[in-house]
Each structure stands twice: as structure tokens, then as C-alpha cells.
Amino acid sequence: MKTIRDILRGKHILLGVTGGIAAYKIPLLVRELKRVGADVHVVMTPAAREFVTATALSTVSGHEVVLDTFPPQSGASVDLGTWHIHLARSIDVMLIAPATANSMAKVAAGFADNAMTTLVLALRCPLVIVPSMDEEMWKHPATQMNVARLRDRGGFVMQPESGELASGLVGEGRMPEIDKIVQYVQDVVSKTHQDLKGRRVLVTAGPTYESIDPVRYVGNRSSGKMGFAIANAAALRGAEVTLVSGLTSLVTPRDVRRVDVETAAQMYEVVLDHSKKTHAVVMAAAVADYAPVKPTAQKIKKTDAELTLHLSPTKDILQTLGSRKNRKVLVGFALETKNDIRNAKEKLRRKNLDLIVLNNPTKPGAAFGGDTNLVTLIGKSGKPEHLPLMSKFDVANTILDRVAKLLKK
To answer: Whose CA is closest to 242, among 273, 203, 268?
Structure first.
């Protein structure tokens, strides 16, 4: 099993320091990251300089600290207008610690008003955020909304600890200890290794809606979160990702190309078109099995009479992909509420899949709209692999681990 030193050795880490009292601990964090073999560059916000000096951070990191959006031109190897692009592209992970409520709000809103926030917008790597603030600031609805936005976009936000705060009060909001931060960074790096670089991955997500009339539809309760988690994880692992999504309010993950559709027929056409040049397809969408035969052009008025809907089967996207698979890796999902293993194995065989992901939304932690999932993976061998209850991002990475191995074959 790899140690922290094995995983972080040689990794280029960009450390953003913001204006929180916990900034006085950051030289120790830099020293610990370097001790396990990482190369650390530091960027500071103007407020951070009130709590720790650039001289101290430059000394422990071994690199000049970035302080300004427009650094001195002397010795610059790139144009002043594009330095942030080159620096952001050269790192493996960016870490913001401590992250104040103000800085998190700026990052969540896409501000680029200082060197650190400018670098965040240019990132092509994972972003790790370590909040540190008073409990009331941490629990404020605006802060929690920003945390949710950052996580939705693929950011890794570490949970602050409870303890004595700078105000003298005791509560949640304290920056975790140095060793815990290093362990968290290691966990993120281990989940975002670039084993899919150069691969094109197509992911589907969300529900399809089949019109009954201009205001009503046949649909399902899928939130799209599982598919979006897979798209995000694949992009973080270096893949060129296309996400075909049904109607959902979820934010498009960073570095993911998104195509929106509404109906099963639209998803069929888009997926078949975009799958021609992909290496792997992960069908996580909850595509409608049936659609109304003749949607009406006008709203159906309510009467006392019974209403009968005539439904016809939709085109089977997975079946079609399986019949034209060639050397693609094809992953399907099976949502079952009874005879789950038997039904999933039959679907795997009938649709010529390489892997099927089985889940039951009636089980605790696996319900529609949640952030966790409880799944079983079944490959060509037919042997079920029961995974524990995990976050959907961790489930996504476990699926992609199998996809990466299949692609190597």
C-alpha cells in the first residue's frame, strides 16, 4: 500500500494563503508537505500578509512567493498577462489554507481580484479548500451556500474542526491539524491520478422527460448527481469528458463539455453521435423506458372522465451501443428493487456490457437526490462486488478504476 510520501513525492502543490489567524501555522504545513516529497509554491492574498510573512514562506518553500496579480517583470520567463495560466497548468493540486469566508465567497463567485483568485480560475487540477473562521461565520447560510457551490463544481472542501477559536469561544470552524490536512491532500491526489489522460469518455446523467401535453410529462426522480460525479471524477483524472444530461439544475463540472437533452429520443441521437469517437461510455442516466404515443399540442383539460395514456417503448440506447461496441468500454446502470443480482446479470449479458452498476434506491443512503450511494459492481466474470455506502464521488472513482483497467486491456 502506498504511503503519503509515495503519493505526494514529486507532486507540485500550489498553496494559497488567505487572511485568517490560522495563517501563522502555514510555514509548518509547507514544511510537512516538503518533508513527504512535494514541491510547494505559495501565493498569498494581501490580507494574509497581516498574519504571516512572505519571507517565512519563501524560506520554508524554497521558492519566491507570489504576492501580486502582476509580479515583477525581472526574470519572468512568461508574459505578464499569461503568467497565471502557465503556473496553474504546471501544478498537480492547489490547496487554499486557511480559507476565509471572504476568500471562499470570491472563489465560489468566480472573482479574480488578486493573485490567488486569478490562479484558481486558471486551474486544470484539483482544488482543495481548508476553511478556517469563527463558528457563526462558518454556519452562516451564505458561507454554507458557497461551500455547496464549490463542492458542486468539483472542489474538495475539508470539514473544519471544533475547538477553541481565535475569538476565545469554542465551536466549529477551527482549521484541522497539519497532519490531517496533509492526509486529506494525499487522499485527493490518490483519487485524481491521471490514468485517463488522453482518453475520451462519454457520460450520461439525469432523467428524461416525455411530454404528455405542453405542461405535463412522464418522468422519474433521478437527480443526475451520480452521472455528474462520474463526469467530474473522469475530468479530474485527465479524461476528455462529454456529459449528456437530462434536465437538471446541477452545475457543470469543470473541464467537462455538456450537452443538454430532454427526451429519450434526443438522448439516443446525441449519445450515438458522440460515442463514435469515445474510448468509454458510462450510461448513468435514467432514460425513460416508455413515452406517450401522441403528445397533444394543447393542454389536456381536466374532466370527470378517466384519462388513458398510450405509451410505446423508447429506443434502447444501451442495447444499440452494445451491438456497435467494437473496442469501447461500455458501463451500464441497473436500478432494481427486487431480484437485483439476477436482473443485473441478465442486463449485463443481453446488452453486451463490460461492467454494470447495480443499485436499489429503497436502501438507506441510496435514495434519489442523495450525496451517497450503495452499489454492487458486476463485470464479465459475473461475480458481484458489493461496495460499502460511499459518497457518489468515491463511487464514481471506483467505477473509473475498473474502466481504466479495462481500457489498458
So the answer is: 203
Of the listed 102, 220, 352, 360, which one is catalytic?
220
C-alpha cell at 245: 444530461
Distance CA(380)–CA(84), nearest Å, equals 46
On whether the CB atoms of residues 379 and 354 are closer than 8 A, the answer is yes
Could you tell me the three cell numbers for 380?
Answer: 464479465
pLDDT at 124: 84
If you ran DSSP here, which 8-state letter would residue 358 be given?
E
Taking only the tens place, the pLDDT of each residue in 6-18 is: 889 999 999 999 9
Q: Which residues contact 313 (CB under 8 A, 6 or more apart)?
A: 289, 290
Instruction: Please name each of the domains of the chain with its CATH number.
Output: 4-191 (3.40.50.1950), 200-295+306-408 (3.40.50.10300)
Question: Distance between the two ends of the chain, CA-based, in angstroms?
Answer: 23
Provide the CB-side half-sphere exposure for 28 (13 A, CA). 11
- Say which residue the cell 490518490 belongs to: 190
Q: How confident is the model at residue 122 (pLDDT cuts 50, 70, 90)?
A: confident
Write the pLDDT tens digit of every residue in 17-72.
Answer: 999 999 999 999 999 999 999 999 999 999 999 999 999 999 999 999 999 887 65
Buried b (16+ CB within 10 A) or exposed e, 21-37: bbbebbbebbebbbebe
Told to judge if 220 belongs to the known catalytic residues of this protein, a careful annotator would answer yes
